[in-house]
Amino acid sequence: MSQYWSDIVHELTPYVPGEQPKLNKLIKLNTNENPYGPSPRVLAAIQQATNQDLRKYPDPNAGALKATIAQYHGVQPDWVFVGNSSDEVLAHTFRALLKHAKPLLFPDITYSFYPVYCGLFDIAYQEVPLRDDFTLNIDDYHQDNGGIIFANPNAPTGINLGLDAIRALLQRNRYSVVVVDEAYVDFGGKSATALVNEFPNLLVIQTLSKSRGLAGLRVGFAIGDPALIRGLERVKNSFHPYALSALALAGAKAAFEDDVYFEQMRDRVIRTRTQSVDALQTLGFKVLPSAANFVFATHPEYSAKTMFEALRARNIIVRYFDRPRLKDFLRISIGTDQEMSVLIEALSEITKKP
What we know:
Elements: H1 7-11, E1 27-28, H2 40-49, H3 63-73, E2 80-83, H4 86-97, E3 104-107, H5 113-121, E4 125-128, E5 147-151, H6 163-172, E6 178-181, E7 202-207, E8 220-224, H7 226-236, H8 246-257, H9 259-282, E9 286-287, E10 294-298, H10 304-313, E11 316-317, E12 319-320, E13 329-333, H11 337-350
Parallel strand pairs: 1-11, 3-4, 3-5, 5-6, 6-7
Antiparallel strand pairs: 2-8, 7-8, 9-10, 10-13, 12-13
């Protein structure tokens, strides 16, 4: 049936998400999901919103949710944009703010959706190599561009770029949009939302999928100058005015209102990450410094692909990227303490360490 496709479909290389296998007694450490799930207040809010009002369309402006996010981040509601996942927010950002004559710049190792969106929306781009240690050098971005985007902490490396470096990058780049994609920032980074009042060309994008345990609800948002937000709204309302369901609006709002639960679960993940890094290093792994809810690890004596396959044979799923510069590494999501103990025990057997 491909003869009926539009021409562009033949040229696309779609994003490949982490697999969602249906295996018994699976330990799933491949898609950076939060092992502890959402706040009970989120579930209660969704249950309360499950009523006869579902016959009505949800608020297309998501006013109550925007007000809650704005209060949480210390901005006004017109500085907030929400969408059906941060992936959708990113898609609108690429269309509204990043398609220009000059190329969009982003790292050669980063969220692999960026080149996919460039192909889909016909955006010229240039990949900027990370240093040999996988850190981002802001000097490499001091060139003409149609925009800059990077994940911070980066994926799949987990490495964080500090606010001072981001400020320096913005000071050098005032005439195109800089997008900081902060899907994992709550696990160890400092949000660039602290800089949005200083730089009107800065857009910060976050998600509720990771630190707030709501990957299944699909809610993302952006914070930036109202002029940027208006551009996003024009694209969104030309594509999908009712982006978030009534249940998503209710659940997302409740997630921001339960800060105690959020902090407790985030801190548990961070503690487990620290323990897991120590255990991996004891087994001889080199682990990159991570500010995310995953680690990126390599072993000098064992093939990452071999370890990936050996773990899978034990019903433990991690992420392996068969790409240059990445093929020697495993990306391991942080699970519960028990899940990580099983992982470490399996890796001890695979690497023959007592």
